[in-house]
Amino acid sequence: MLMQREHATLLVVDVQEKLAPAVHDADGLMARLQWLVDAVRDTGVPVVFSEQYPKGLGHTVPALRDAAPTARTVEKQHFSCVAGDCLPDSLMQRDQVIVCGMETHVCVLQTVIDLLDEDKEVYVVSDAVSSRREADHLAGLARMRDAGAQLVTREMVLFELLHQAGTDEFKAASKRYLVGEQPA
């Protein structure tokens, strides 16, 4: 199963102002998330941001919000976006959910498992999720994979959503996202 733009939504889980500095490789994660949100937005795939208890953890990091100004933001208190019943119908009506964000072993994990239980094809962007501790991050990735989620990378997302080379869209994306220094 390949990601297809007409079937997919990008769900950015809880990349919030007060939590973001505490995760492993915070600066690298923010750069990779920015790359991913920009690239997905450029393909026309809808973006949804979730926020866990924003009163305490703050709102989505401004640079990400600015990258997708028309994206819907949903608030929750449950760790899982699905259990929190906050996801918009527009996301739930699509077959595929591409997931990134924080923390891999808590909100991302619980959301992914619940999305799988809702019969969604779930793609976890392994280089665009993180936790405060690397061991938790790795355990979360393993558990999601074992539950049936597909682990992908940012470039896999971009290439699958573009679907083919040689188009004007591919050429523009290639210049912007594949040439020169990119976030590691």
TrEMBL record:
A GO molecular-function descriptor: hydrolase activity
InterPro entries documented for this protein: Isochorismatase-like_dom, Isochorismatase-like_sf, Isochorismatase_domain
Domain Isochorismatase-like: 9-155
Hydrolase recorded as keyword: yes
Superkingdom of origin: Bacteria
Annotated Gene3D superfamilies: Isochorismatase-like (3.40.50.850)
Keywords linked to the UniProt accession: Hydrolase
UniProt xrefs under Pfam families: Isochorismatase
Keyword set includes ATP-binding: no
Annotated PANTHER family: HYDROLASE (PTHR14119), ISOCHORISMATASE DOMAIN-CONTAINING PROTEIN 2 (PTHR14119:SF3)
Protein name: Hydrolase
Source organism: Crenobacter oryzisoli
Source lineage: Bacteria, Pseudomonadati, Pseudomonadota, Betaproteobacteria, Neisseriales
